Sequence to fold (1035 residues):
Amino acid sequence: MTATPAKKTSKKSSKKAAPEAPAPVLGAAAPLSKAAPPFRNRTIDKKALRNLMAWAYKNHGTAATASMADELKDLGFHYATQAAVSISVDDLRIPGEKARLLEEAEQQITDTEERYRLGEITEVERHTKVIDTWTETNERLVEEVKKNFNENDPLNSVWMMANSGARGNMSQVRQLVGMRGLMANPQGEIIDLPIRTNFREGLTVTEYVISSYGARKGLVDTALRTADSGYLTRRLVDVAQDVIVREDDCGTTRSIPIDADDKGKYAAKLVGRLAAEPVLDANCEILVDRDGEIDPPLSRRIEAAGVKTVKVRSPLTCEAARSVCRKCYGWALAHNELVDLGEAVGIVAAQSIGEPGTQLTMRTFHTGGVSTAETGVVRSQVEGTIEFGAKARVRPFRTPHGVDAQIAETDFTLQVKPSGKGKLQKLEITTGSLLFVADGHDYPVDTMLAQISSGAAVKKSVEKATKDVICDLAGQVRYEDGIQPKEVTDRQGNITHKATRLGRMWVFAGDVYNLPPNAQPVVTGNKAVTTGEVLAESRLVSEFGGAVRLRESAGDSREVQIVTTSLTLKDCKLVGESTHAGELWHLEGKDNIRYRLNTHPGTKISSGEVIAELADDRFRTQTGGIVKYAPGLAIKKARSAKNGYEVSKGGTLLWIPQETHEINKDISLLMIEDGQWIEAGTEVVKDIFSQTAGIVTVTQKNDILREIIVRSGTLHHVADAKVVSRYSDGKMVNPGEEIAKGIKAEAMVFVEAVDTAEGGVLLLRPVEEYRIPDAAHLPELSSVKQANGPSLGLKATQRLAFKDGELIKSVEGVELLKTQLILDTFDTTPQMTVDVEAVPDKRAKTIDRLQLVILESLLVRRDTLSDASHGSTHTELSVNDGDAVKAGDVVATTQILCKEDGVVQLPELVEGEPIRRLIVERSSDTRRIELGSAKASVALGQRLVDGDQLAEGVVAPCCGQVEAVEGNSITIRLGRPYMVSPDSVLHVRDGELVQRGDSLALLVFERQKTGDIVQGLPRIEELLEARRPRESAVL
Fold:
């Protein structure tokens, strides 16, 4: 051996160069003998080292393997120390091919963008192609990096570290010396702008920002992943921890079949399993008995005998109670022998699933289709003719990149017959492969022939995704016949239009004007218009009529108010006073009547609201007490008593005063006794004094003083116990009635029996009477209203605050009756509000009156030139301040003026639909092309894209539709095609007018679901919790 391998490679060359990089232990074609492996002079990399250790472990046991690993480690350290591997900026060698690869990618992307502009591919196909192009370029660059290091600098320290597995991997080396590549945004979608530079060259500012996106996502993902994955392991262990090998053999006859793949191979599927039934070859000779262990050589013999299905025992079919038996479990793969009794196989399984959780990446989405990088592309090696052969069956297919190809429905052989000298090229095509060439056609060398599928149809997990097609120019939409829209009604009854087939949607350029609501066009279709000409007119009309008020303009609009209805309180003066709580307003009427205003001028109120309350002290009490309704007093029934009880018929309200102190303190603070007679001003509890004289009742619970009640009146001792019991619940006595012998009521009293130490006592409590009138006083009103307009009114209501028999616990007085003024409106809409205003009296200007008005508010736009989509507008007011207008009169007219000369066109409408947009086709929206002496080869109305032939030697310089063919010139109306895929939702109708930035369609496509751990967690949760999955899937 030469002395060159001095650096990291030597870690694996000296002693490790002796053994050959052995084949994998399982399924190896030529297994290693138990003797030392043959001497091979080559570098041993990570994989070969792993195989070497596996061979040593299998053939020589644990001790020998540990000793060998130690020696390998010593050897590695010895040479690594001598080599003194270092790293510097100069070690980062950028391959020279990088510039060419990037240039090729840029060219492919430019071509794709051009195809998209010409409407040959959809937005989704463009995006997919761009991402796949960069992914492929990145992979090719990695190969260049490897090739560059291998050929030019095999002992480069960066290369050795990555290659030997000491530190880092190719993905990191790629970022150092290749290109950083594509990054994902925070939503997990790939940004189709790649980072072309590497860390050695340095990133541009834009690239740095995009790079930070990706880096941040990486950090966040790692943090989330550790938690999620750990939790997953924990739950799996929780479920599987009691699965232990407890029996030798459960004796079951059940089994599961294991099938060979298409090529008749089993790989490692049978290794370590026990046969449930004898396995027979074609000659009915037994290869394996029932319960026979299948090791790698036996597995290969079964393959060689052509056995398609083997029935094996499995823990899934094991019939051992509460556990698994040894024979159903098979080998413990830790030592490739039958599992031992007592092995906790459930925990082993849970840990095996959970352990790699943290290492799995949260792979990000491909927004657009399924990645196409998984299959091999084959190119032609000779120039010649393609022959599919008689067995071939193909059908048309459109690739995710929008390329029209053919897909093979059977396996067959494709041949390239050379046109000159050269060797016949044969190509085995499998079912599902894509063919980019047609049968019988000639193709040059290096043509892409096919994309060979891997054979086994992998069921990919896909999900539906959508992408909007946004319009790049204003104009009119036209469908091509291919789209064939159909109406689809969903379960909610919503109707959407969908494309049934692949087709193009065109937008032909023009100046589109948005018309304001209720504007009417004043021009007819196909009429030539000039700058400043009126295209449409919108009239602002008064609904009810009334007196006009012009308000000062705010922003770009001016408000016109029309007073439809007004109501004035003409005998009440409006008075405002400033207090620390803000401004308070009162209404002062005749006879010193005074109302407190609940609202104030400048506010809006609605029907049923209380405007004012009568400030009336006649119904105010001195203390709390009991309310009684005298016969004759009636109230209206109401669902809620929140605002009190409305009086329907006047009468007398009776009031029995009673002072109630709510205490909630310790009983030790009580300074009087229960049942004691006290005078006004007596201290009943520390710092609480009685306001009236009377008998005290003390309520207590658990030594806590709850409340003290003082009932005033006169006390009378009565010896007759029957008389006392008659008044035990209290009774109202009218004047002149005898209460007991010798006691007559002089006024109305409420008589109650009171227990005292001296025996039965009657307490005669005074009763106060309050007279309530049948109807409340209503101030004088004057109103103005329009013929068909809404009307305003006020009603006065009396409301009692308490119901019959209610006890009011209070020391201060309460208001028993409120007289309220309530707003009443008729013929109004729910959203109509009433404005409260203060207006000077017509005769005495110094006095303000309260006026309630219903206003019709109309906003009149100013003249604008700025809003491009509306065109320039001109508005004229037709009324002055103070004018009286009738219902239906025009208040203002707004005209939409034309911005540029052209031909106006009206949109195609569904019956009864208002015109909301107009289009003016200007001279800048068309292009005239001179043909010279050549004869036009296009017809009127034909749609063209760049490069289409117009005449001999003349090609179209733009996309559009032929509008005129005159002698030796052609006029094309400029347009833009958009490709729409089948099942896309169409947002615009044929002939509809669109503005730039409007959504034309919603492309629906399938994208691959990433099968990573974090996305899988909810699935596992559904399984563990036996929930119904959101999306049904075959397990």
